[in-house]
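Entry 14. Ran structure prediction on the chain below.
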Amino acid sequence: MTDADLTIPADLLPKDGRFGSGPTKVRPEQLAALAATGTSYLGTSHRQEGVRSVVRRVREGIAALYGLPDGYEVILGNGGATIFWDIATVCLIERRSQHMAFGEFSSKFAKATAAAPHLEEPSVLKADYGHAPDAFAPVAGIDAYCLPHNETSTGVMTRIERPDGADAGALMLVDATSAAGGLPVDLTQTDAYYFAPQKGFASDGGLFFAILSPAAIERSERLIPQRWVPPTLDLGIHIEQSRLEQTYNTPALATLFLMAEQVDWMNAQGGLDWATERTGESARILYTWADKSPYAEAFVTDPAKRSTVVGTIRLEDKIDAATVVKALKTNGIVDVGAYRAAGYNGLRVGLFPAIEPADVEALTACIDWVVDRMTP
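Output, structure tokens:
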């Protein structure tokens, strides 16, 4: 028997062993609700009321969850947050953007704008994995400031505040893919708060959602006529279609339904305040365990930047994290390996609202059990 073949006692195991950071755990109740639709939903036209009512349900549910400021709108379209980077590059950034780049995904958006021939070279504020810049560095001519609310690859979260000294009218574009539904935010500090549904909203991939300010909508209305924009990236089309409770082309219907169920569940439990308290409880369990552990520590050294939706843990070098991950997987605890490009010996644990805090506590006990029995 190898270390990876260890059998964890059943009484230590979490009730649900899914701790992925995307796709993440889908609650069984969501799947049961989808199955209960029988032949009335899947396989029907996305232009008809059966599907449009679900789009409406999601948009209204997100609006209720966040308590939208006046004039803000929830839009959606096919693709994911990656697609929205391209949309923003052609429809929201006028000349030059500034980016915080401190992980895999924040760096990709900066690279997308750098490659755009119609834009000036972006300003990029970099930080090593596990850290983040403390603030933007406004300069004249920057018309869009871009950062993730939570860097999924490293477990670093940021504060969302408009930069002091920015040009009048500069937009704030926030990638909320792993933050949405699990971290608090003041939407008045944003102009595009965009995300995909396969993390905090316990759904699947294939769609993007964006909460847009009136300034972002006005910017897109002004820029799009001046540029050649492919229809699939045309934010104006996505806004128009969203107002009709539909998408430009056929969406992933199962994804929409699963998200509708999750948003309704979160609102019924107490909304965003409830969800953020729940993720905070899971994070306290994980980081308190790491602080007390003789072999583990939080990967993010600044407590204020430790994510409460994606927890990252470094293990001491003599413990092979890959072996721990394999042993956990053998016992039905999955998707806790560190992000491949983060470059540290450790774990990454999804702490989204669908995940029970008690299961996070059980996970820590299982890690201890495995490590105690690994070959020295």
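Residues 29-268 form a domain with the Aspartate Aminotransferase; domain 2 fold (CATH 3.40.640.10). Will compare against last week's run tomorrow.
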